[in-house]
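Supplementary Data S3. Sequence and structure tokens for construct A.
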Amino acid sequence: MSESFRPVDWIYSSNIYEVNLRQYTPEGTIRAFARELPRLRDMGIDVLWFMPITPIGHEKRIGSLGSYYACSDYTSINPEFGTLEDFVALVNQAHALGFRVLIDIVANHTAWDHHWTRKHPEYYRLNEHGQFFDPHGWTDVIDLNYDNPELRKAMIDMMRWWIQTADVDGFRCDMAMLVPLDFWKQARETLDPLKPLFWLAECEEIAYHEVFDATYTWKFLHKMESVWRGDSPVGGLDEVLDYYDTMFPSNGLRVYCTTNHDENSHSGSEYERMGDMAKAFAVLCCTWNGLPLIYSGQELPNKKRLKFFDKDQIDWTGSYGLHGFFRTLLLLRKRNPALRSGDPAITIHRLNNALDDRCFTFARRAGDDQVLVLLNLTGEELVLPVSELLIQGTWREVFMGNWTDFSKATHFVLPAWGYAVYEKING
């Protein structure tokens, strides 16, 4: 990240939750989702990222309801979800509970029937036949033209409108790398003075950290999948993490997850893609050096693919089986300084041992505050000698609540596909 841009202070220990409004409740509305806010706050969520809430185009629409990402008006609410007043009320309620709210900005393209196609056709790129087009094979959208300074102004005005009208706290920017980096710089320089904002880019381009506070970790997500399939050894995880440490700026935040709307709808739930490793990998994503992202329904857990272009509600049962699992991890992140993201004072080191080909173990330390993470990535019980991990003192296992004095203990026992997270107890 450029020295001219600094992340907001509140993001470093925050946990992000992606909201799929359409599939969240039977009503699929903003008002219906508002009922879930206290539960999500109790689970340890700090930041709510709403998938696009703008109206969806009708021309060349895919499916019965279309893609959230085919916008027909940047400064309106999709009537499927409710009204602008509903969303403003939701943001106010969320703020009162301590949440921050991000909205999804789809800056690369619009729907074919966005009102700009009639009022400002010069805002769009044209193909060799003088027609609107999209070069990526997305049939329901058309590309905007960032060579046009008026288009840039209109996009920045749109984001300003959301800040001033709804008091949003930042933007998740869809396919950010398809939009020129200098535009995002222009936008941030213009909008940051209005209020402290968090900028999240959906991309894994190193250069985009010049402007954005955080980017995605697709490479790591797909490596986790590869480890589950047996196409990569456990050491493949280290290779990707070493790449991030070496190539990405040290002050650039990364977002880690086991699923999101794209992965779930197009490739399957985390249980399809990561099988019995899914929970251990969720622990890893919540404790490694980044910002954890939880997708709608993971706390159920949702194990089905949600349709992307049609109504397909999450099958809530009234029992949130992984609420406590995520609450334990997310509250630990918030209270223990050793899990703060992007802090150069924190040391993170892998704990090498004879079982490295079957488990993933590491420790994080910030002064006297320490966290130890042990993940069994096999279908058999593993016994790890304490002596090999060089762990000392009294620690508390956060899921079970039991304390262990490692000056007396001789080994850890991890059940098949199991995990353990220890927090150092001082004094």
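Construct B, processed identically:
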Amino acid sequence: MSRYDVIVIGGGPAGLAAAASARGHGAKDVLVIERAERLGGILNQCIHNGFGLITYGEELTGPEYAHRAELAAREAGVETLLDTMVLSVAKDRTVTCVGPEGLLALSAGAVVLAMGCRERPAGALAIPGFRPAGVYTAGCAQRLVNMDGLLPGREVVILGSGDIGLIMARRMTLEGAHVACVAELMPYSGGLKRNIVQCLDDFDIPLLLSHTVTRIEGRRRVEAVWLSEVGTGGRPVPGTEVRYPCDTLLLSVGLLPENELSREAGVRLSAVTRGPEVSQALETSIPGVFACGNVLHVHDLVDYVTQEAEVAGAAAADFAMAGGQRRGGHIVPVMPAGSVRYVVPQRLDLDALPEKVTFRFRVGAPIDSATLAVEASERTLLRRRRPIMVPGQMEQVTIRREDLLTVAGGITIRAEEEGR
């Protein structure tokens, strides 16, 4: 059994940044295990620009950002195992995997979970109709177009206005397809405002809010889809059906953190994010096992993934170099309130606070003229006004260590419309 100070599962931007950070904070033997044949993760198929403005101060494409992350990890001395699938992570931090070298059992001083996320599939939607060819997730279509040089279809309808769906509306149009519309179940878009403008408005692609697909026509290949308005509870409104002839339906209906390994290892998962519940060091409920990136909660900017992963990598290195020993801390909860749907981290260890702690969160619905507050018992640690807050954009606040030391009952992060 080989021994490493830190093993990172996943070679995307989160895993690479965590591994480089672990090396930079004293871990001597750091290994990244990646199931694909190359590093970089999902960024390899994201050929559009807009990445890296925070991290590098310039606009990069996804592959360019991934390349820089890979270079940083290799220059730091990180080892890699590619084309290797992790089968299990034990509570004693033994990682079992299989790849070209056969079945391996690797021991780690600390483990960082960075497996990313996956798309919600068509089967989860229970749309009436047959299962013809031409129904793709938006990410699958993105790979076909950007990496394999294949066009999934010519006449396209997109269900879901997440960022991948918006970006693929533009990409399919640029490749010569006609995108009839983007339909969204909710009364607001799930994507960033800039993507709505750049990917839909600039190409005159309609965005139909409060609409969903209620029927798919076609047996061998999609021939048309029926869109209906939805009312309260997301139920289709009778009599509002409109038929859209098409040969392709792309689904951009949500991303789910990839936590099968975490669940089998016994990591406590959040019912809201579907990722691990973590401390400010991004340590899960299992000592020495950390999580970062989209496996923890779905991000909209890769720059925030990198920042988060650097925290996880540094904490993993500290844990490993201390021999797996840690003090019993004074743990307090971090709770969402008002329109805030979730907060990461979910707990604080007051005996191990860094100089500052960044809390990332999302609201459950759009709110205008919002007041954001970080509260502790009878005190308000921070209060800010935001002109608008939307679910598609992750928010964050940073609180100094000295302001957190006395929050014995925990803290609450609240967002509400002014006047409530």
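The chain has eight helices and 25 strands. The chain has three domains: 1-118+255-326, 121-253, 329-420.
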